[in-house]
Design brief:
- This protein has helices at about 5-25, 40-60, 70-100, 110-140, 150-155.
- It is an all-alpha fold.
- The protein has one domain.
- Helix 2 (about 40-60) runs parallel beside helix 4.
Length: about 160
Amino acid sequence: MKPTGWRELLSTFVVVAVVVYLIIRSSYGVLPPLPLFAGITLLVLAIIETVLGYSLRARIEGRHGQPVQPLVAARAVALAKASALAGAVMAGVWAGLLGYLLPKLHVLAAAALDTPGAIIGLVCAVALVAAAMWLQHCCRTPLDSDDPDRQRYQR
């Protein structure tokens, strides 16, 4: 399994943002008002994954608790990969919405009311991507000094 790359996440973000912008442009008038904390769930997930990353990293390095079972590490990596992609998708959704709302701030009262919620959602989605990438990084095993592939895995 390869680590999730920034290019993959960025391309997902851009495609989703463009698609959402086009959809919102044609249907914003029929949408209900956006709750201020609509994206806060993503921040909760980001916090959980950050804490999990620190815990797993300490256990993998042998500083704290029992050693990590390989299946636990594999599940954490799968969670990190899925969360990074979900965060990129949601960041694209919020960015597409903001792309429509920001130019309309002084024209539509609803746009002014929805903008803070979209900004909070975008920040929370970016936090989820960052936490997922951190968790994925924390699941790497420390490399032995005599490992012939050591250079290949270091960044």
